[in-house]
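seq as requested:
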Amino acid sequence: MRLLQSILALTLAASSATAVPSESIKRREISARGQRVDTKYFHEPGGDNELGHYDIRYFKQKVPYEEHRPALQHLIRSYLTTFRSLGVETWLAHGTLLGWWWNGRIMPWDYDLDVQVSAQTLYYLGNNLNRTTHEYNYFDPISGKPMKKEYLLDINPHHSEITRGDGQNVIDARWIDLSNGMFIDITGLAERDSHSPGVWSCKNFHKYRTTELYPMRETEFEGVPATIPYSFDYILTDEYGHKSLVTTQWAGHRWEPELKEWIKIPKDDEKKEEDKEQKA
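C-alpha cells:
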C-alpha cells in the first residue's frame, strides 16, 4: 500500500497543513442514575436523518435540496484530489460506491459520503495530518469566477482501538466542510481477528476479503480520479442486495436511462406512483 509518494500536481485543490487547535473529547459524568459516559467524539445536531449528517461544531443551518448536492460534490472532489496529491490511498465505499456504479456521481438523496482507508493509513493520518485544514480552489460554474473553500481533516482519537467498544466511535475520521458542517465519513479497515487472516473489517461489522479489495481499480467519480475496490459488484450486492443495481425508482427519484441521471419526481407524480403500487 502506498502512503507517501511524490506530490502530484493538483488541478482542483491545493492543500495547506494548517494545524487547528485540538478539541477535548466531550464527556459527561456518570450520574447517580447510572447514565453511561458520553465517549462519542463526533457529534451531530440530530433530530432527523438530514440533521444527522452535519458536524455540530460547524453547523449553521440545513443546506437546501438544490444546494446540498453541489456542496457534496465539492467535498468529494476536494478530498480525492487532496489525498491523491499526498499519495494517501483511499477508496469509495457504501452508498458513495453505489452512486459510482450508477453513473459516477453522488445520488441526489444522499446527505453524506463514505470512504475507506487501511488502518495503516489511518495511523499515518493521525500522526501526521490530524486537525489540518486544506484549501480547495474551483471555478463557479455560473459566473466562471475562481472560488475557494476550506476543509478540515479530523481524526477520531479512538481510531486506533481494534474493537467496536461501546459503539459510539465507529467513524474513525471525517473530512469536514468548515462553511456548513457537511462531511465525509472515513472508516479504517484492519485484519482485526487473528484467527481470520485476509479478512478486513471496520468497527461497524462490514467485512471484506483481501481479494475483494485488491488490486484496487482506478476510475473517476464526480469528474476527478478515484479508486474503488476490485470486486465492487460483489461488495455492493452483499451490502445492499441485487435490487440496488436494478431498481430505477428510489427516495422520490426516478432513473432516466437516456440522461443517465436520477431525476426528482414531482410530488403529484410521486403520489400517483404510490397509489398505483398500493392498488397493485
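Helices lie at 65-86, 94-103, 119-128, 210-213, 232-240, 267-279.
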